[in-house]
Amino acid sequence: MSATPPPKALTGEPRPAPTGTTAHDGALGWLRALGPRGRRAFGGAFGGYALDSYDYFTLPLTMVALSAYFNLNSGQTGLLTTVTLVVSAVGGALAGVLADRVGRVKALLVTVVTYAVFTVACGFAPTYETLLVFRALQGLGFGGEWAVGAILVAEYASARHRGRTLGAVQSAWAVGWALAVIVYTMIFSLVDDGLAWRVMFWTGALPALLVVWVRRSVRDAPQAAAARERSAHRGSFAAIFRPDRPGRAGLLRTTLFAVLLSTGVQGGYYTLATWVPTYLKTERELSVVGTGGYLTFLISGAFIGYLTGGWLTDRLGRRRNIWLFALLSAVCVLAYANIPSGANTLVLVLGFPLGFCMSAIFSGFGSYLSELYPTAVRGTGQGFTYNTGRAVGAVFPTTVGFLADGWGVGGALVFGAIGYGLAALALLGLPETRGKELQ
Hints:
It is a single chain. With 439 residues, the protein is mostly helical. The chain has a single domain, classed as Growth Hormone, Chain: A (Up-down Bundle). It is globular. The two termini are 26 Å apart. The N terminus is likely disordered.
């Protein structure tokens, strides 16, 4: 009697299941397993997320120059980040619904165009209030890109490789971050600060090049698109808040705990992403070039952390990976924020494990949130939970901004460790999904 073959990944391309040593094994087996269409989808999602990261970091890197130009206090500069993240919840939720109703690729294009246009607009802002509005509108696109791109790739990936595949997509954030630091270092070394911050925002037009390629080359996973079209509840907010009833499983519990998980992880992360550049320049008194050098260690750790976390997500499971790095991230934050004055070499060294841990915890998010929701509301569920968590977590960097005037930026950074504790608690209400096929 012949064995029943395992379910295929949603690639629309038949291929045999891996047995023994196959082309799908090895360091890049996850990439080969995607097939040609899946690899193009991966390229679109990777590029979109890298440029999403680049456009986001135009603000933290220029924060000191902005503060001087508009005469802002720490609370006002922190509010720029908070507004971006709060509005990103709206953008993420809308993009998720759009992805379920019109398709992943079309929604991806809308998000990329939105965040690119309003990042460039920030460079023309004549007042702080105008900058605040433009940054909020940038958040609409910023909020939706990751969720849509992650779902697009998840529906091509096999259950066996999904953690590594989505971890690789997540690593694009470090690539975009590194590119932003390189451009920042060049611009602020050559141009006066009063103009340099505007030039930095104007470079946010780069995503326009990606849009042209995605329109021509990337398509939704065929079987996922067909399943989505058959559903009567596509893109329904009501569906992700439906409680359990006799004879019908609901998603309310999943949605609430997934929001709490996203809040904790992103509260901790954005506290660091927003304030570490300012911490290095003001309290560590580093130059522009010096800040860039220290951030190189942090970003290198982040890139390796994304890839390692993706591998561990497949080996340990989604929940264990997040638990492990929630603990390690909290320890690293506390250590980094309490380095004695004058010990800048230690700041340099600790930047690597800090970047590693705070990024590795994200690697499982793309696969985990995709697996928690059925195809018809996968975009809605993932877009809502991830970005609502981001919006609530935005309270953390603003709190640090207000505390910084009394505690100093370094002292206030410890507040980010609280977020990682919330993430660990949230996992108590969520199931393990490793090995789940997205049918």
